[in-house]
Amino acid sequence: TEESILERQTILSKSLATRVVYIIKTILLPQLHRTITARTQSDAMHKVNRKLAGPDRDEEDILRIPIALAVVKLLQRLPEEVLQQNICGILMKLCTFLKSRLDSVRRVTRETLQKVIVSLGSSYLRQMIQEMTVILTHGFHVHVLVYSIHSVLVAAKPLLKMGDLDPCVSLVVDACRTDLFGKTSEEKEVKQIAGNLMEARANRSYDMYHILAEFITQKSLINLIVPLKEELGHTMSHKAINKGRECLRHIVLGLVDNKFVTTEALLIFAYGTASESIPALFADLKK
């Protein structure tokens, strides 16, 4: 059988390869960046007319979002420095679509983010979560943030290696903390908000604690527990205490499956927590 055209590989001379990379960097990539961030027709409309445009107005966004995945795959074929120069901008532009009020746009964006992290690998997890955290900061975006971080973590689970999640612990825990104990948690109980926003109806924070506990290393155990201890230390709310208990339950379940922390280290940590003998965990109680 004849070799498929798609499977053929042409080896270019060094000078020609350099020329191809230069054209991609200076012409193709800027065009792709502009395509991803181009204003849709609905963006150019007055807000009154935008409402009248109906559900069809998100079609342009939905078509443009997957371009980001194609760009990432292209960048992975280029020299490493080209990938590093462009990946931050691509992730930022992609995460911006999560600010959309349309469920369909946010859903397609999350699916694309999942495919991107699978393609890039778990070493880019912190960078992706950081971009989401910077962009999604107010109002309903906070609900979207927690839901989206969870979807990316779930997609990355099969790829996670020792130490991959350690740099992400603080970012993820902060999002969970806001979701469970902040204003966001109160909004989840408002039927009107929860009814209009799919992400507000779900609670992904507990499962994120489980994932963190399952894949972090010993050095990050404190970072997982301290924020919970701080929340429970200044509340008398029965509801908050129950949430804290549920978080701890998921942490324990995750640690049981953790292959990166030895049984001895877990026993020492458990004893230190119970006996209040870990300085970093109970320092403020001694003041």
TrEMBL record:
Coiled coil start-end: none
A cellular component annotation (GO) from this entry: small-subunit processome
Domain U3 small nucleolar RNA-associated protein: 57-273
Protein name: U3 small nucleolar RNA-associated protein 20 domain-containing protein
InterPro entries associated with the record: ARM-type_fold (IPR016024), SSU_processome_comp_20 (IPR052575), UTP20_dom (IPR046523)
